[in-house]
Write a structure and sequence with these properties.
The complex is a heterodimer of chains A (348) and B (359). With 348 residues, chain A is mostly helical. In chain A, 72% of the residues lie in helices and 1% in strands. Chain B contains ten helices and 14 strands. The interface between A and B is large, with 42 and 45 residues. Chain B: Its main location: other.
Amino acid sequence: MSASTQAAPTPASPHTTEKTSWIDAVVRAREVSLIGVLAVLVIAVSIAEPRFLNAQNLRDILLNVTIVGLLAVGQTIVVITRNIDLSVGSILGISAFATGIMFADHNVPIPLVFLGGILFGAFFGLINGVMVAWARVPSLVITLGTLYVIRGLDFAWAEGRQINAADMPDGFLSLATTEVLGFPVLPIFTIAAMVLVGVALGRSRMGRELYAIGSNPDAAVLAGIRVSRRVLGAFVASGAIAGLAGVLYASRYGTLDAVAGTGIELAAVSAVVVGGVAIFGGSGTVWGAALGALLLTTIRSALVILQIDPFWDQAIQGALLLAAIGLDAYLAMRLARELRKRRSANRV
Amino acid sequence: MAIRNKAFAALALTSLLGVAACGSTKEDTQKEAAATPAATEEGGAAAGGGEIKEGLKIAFLPKQINNPYFTISDKGGEDAVNAVKGEYKRVGPSDTAASSQVSYINTLTTQKQDAIVISANDANAVVPALQKAKAAGIKVVTYDSDTAPEGRDLFINQAAAEDLGRSQVQLLAKQIGPEGGEIAILSATPNATNQNTWIEFMEDELKKPEYSKFKLVKIAYGNDDDQKSFEETQGLLQAYPDLKGIISPTTVGIAAAARYLQGSDAKGKVKLTGLGTPNQLRDFVKDGTIEGFELWDPGKLGYLAGYAAAALASGTITGAEGEKFTAGDLGEREVGKNGEVLLGPPTVFDANNIDDFDF
């Protein structure tokens, strides 16, 4: 999993042959092997069922990846620091419900609802972050706790109430159905968040510090990085993104109750892991995580299109997930070995 | 490394908690066994009276405590319990796993409720716990989803499964018109008892000669999950470009399918019907995504169940066929075969009448 060493870029040696630098790039850009796996899947499914490739289905896949992709982007920020945020599904759920309440009971204008949802999520992220950064309890335990606490608050708040499409303005609901030049609007939010976070992680000092914390927390402290503050920031960002995802969820499904987004945190974590973000921190990119989410969504869509027996659905989904990770790991390993061979050959 | 160890500790802690939870369940069972003789005596004394008693403790145990459908039905139940001056209580799980209701039944048994009104997540998983409750003198009424008959005294049936199954096919056939075509069903989970029974009657109805031009091409399962139901609807339209209609006999499924159709080219072309609540589908009926759908009134279902529980706990009925009891505004009801009480035929909601309903 740690083949993609984003954290430790290798300076290009002057005597590297053209072929080696190509392999070098591939190994570093773990995303390439993911695209390969995705291509294999799409081609295989299209041969079995040509309708898979029509425009409507591709748009549907983009729409389906919007929410889980967004959560995967947020999760990446946290996982890079050697932490995990299991509460994002619950944060999404309560933000989605808050979105519904803002429309149904208070007639809040749409832009303010977006802002409100994001702040709402950031607030819960802050609570997670404070406990993880200063209580020194592993984030797995903290966020497992807040997963239930926040969902419980959601239940208590909703009291079994359901908010329906009729309670929300058309302008908001149509976000999920509008297209710009044939491209659906909703995924643009995810793409924007991905680019923003991707650039911040890859290029800003703050972003590189997050990688440093995940690679070696003790060394990060010695290097003068304010670890607690950075980790807190990562959780706030993850919460805010989950809050945004909640608003989009409301727009997408139009029916909201207290169970919205239950269990989706596992899909986000899967996407991150499939996307090559090391679960023990320090390496990986949001591009990989987003591709991981796209791969998982494509698998789900393929199973529906191929008319798989619903009783086998989950088992096959899991098996394909394992196969994808396996293929990806194999490709990465082959390339890494090749690269090592060439490097040692160059040295001699 | 430190992190890894901590993570391990966390897992160990979680599993310990799991073990502790099992332990407490067992304890409940033992306590309850100890309490049994006393409770039975009380139950024996109760039988024979003709009037509904005051102060009866009646507990509602829905499939899922947060499910809006049960919020409405149990509100009806609360009204009934208040009307007979009883003590209303509502508990339940937040997930629909087969065994999730068992611990609630055990707790209610220990608390010596007079009656438990339950909608079973699984027809068999709750039976042993309910039998223990019955042995302790507690009356058991099922509503919405029945258990095996040995687990309860009465079942309040929202609508005969046969009526519901057949009428949904009739509703869709009327919307599509005589030329017929391919239709599909979007159900809840593959194991859902209610839906599977209705689907059997739908398939049987489709065998009639007047539906010879209709063809059921697929039964898809949305698992009562918004996202999954959404994706399954996409899949149906992809896989069957000539699809003429979808029946979704579940409130989550029909809303998700409507939301998908609303934003797709198939809106109005692919007819959608099934079971849903008026509030949930109002928007879709008004914009033409759905022409009409049906449901019983869940509030009345809970109301009837509340009265039935009070009558049983007061000893005015025992659950035998032919017995009669008064259910407030609903008037007199008779116990039918297999201890079933029928609520009545479903209501069809369309653009003309949907604004008369608020649930």
